[in-house]
Fold:
Amino acid sequence: MRYALGVEYDGGDFQGWQRLEKPGAPVHTPSVQSTLEAALAAVANAPIDTVCAGRTDAGVHGQCQVVHFDTEVVRTPRGWTLGATANLPPSICVRWCVRVAEDFHARFSARARRYRYVLLNRAVRPALGRQLLSWERLPLDAAAMHRAAQALLGENDFSAFRTVHCQARHPMRELQSIAVNRQGEQVIVEVQANAFLHHMVRNIVGSLLLVGRGEQPEGWIAELLAGRDRTLAGPTAPPQGLVFVGPLYPAGWGLPDEVTLREA
Structure:
């Protein structure tokens, strides 16, 4: 039997999603994946291996990460949801569980993925919620950032916005939407693509910040994209402002609305 889970987590407590305990890392910095699998194993009384829709780095959060796992252990979806959450730390919860077809794949069945980056734009650093946003003290022109970002739409070579350690086979990605909006003291960047390169969103945000501060013109983002040179782009934005909102799947998989593509 194959199940899909919707998982929410505060990435600040973990070294990232992937079950890859770094050599020499303190024991109190596990991965989200290893922590989730231990909780599921406690419910199943058997080992559980999970596959996720998109890996996140240390400090990056997940609003609705989707994973799948296979098991012969009989539990209801509610049993998996409540049982796993009961065995998880406060920084992770399982939001829902759905039994899915055997050919469903959390990564390869997804048609899009969404990220949100939140900037607190004010002169004084935050005391509350600082683990869920990034602070920018200089005034930002969100409208200029939005206009500049539109040059990234479509299928493009995003070499200028990938880390040098990115292991993707090629740098081509289809950016389906990107919006920058101000909501009070917050500037929010929302991005959707078929897939993302390593650090792609954080590198885009880091470059857009230079436009928002007036240090670079709006057309600079298009020049970076065409130049395909990471060394010319802005710095990588901090991880704590980034949230993996979740993937999107065709309606036929029977998943909750928040991860299902809307028909045109």
Notes: Strands lie at 2-9, 50-52, 61-70, 92-100, 112-121, 134-136, 154-157, 172-183, 186-193, 242-248.
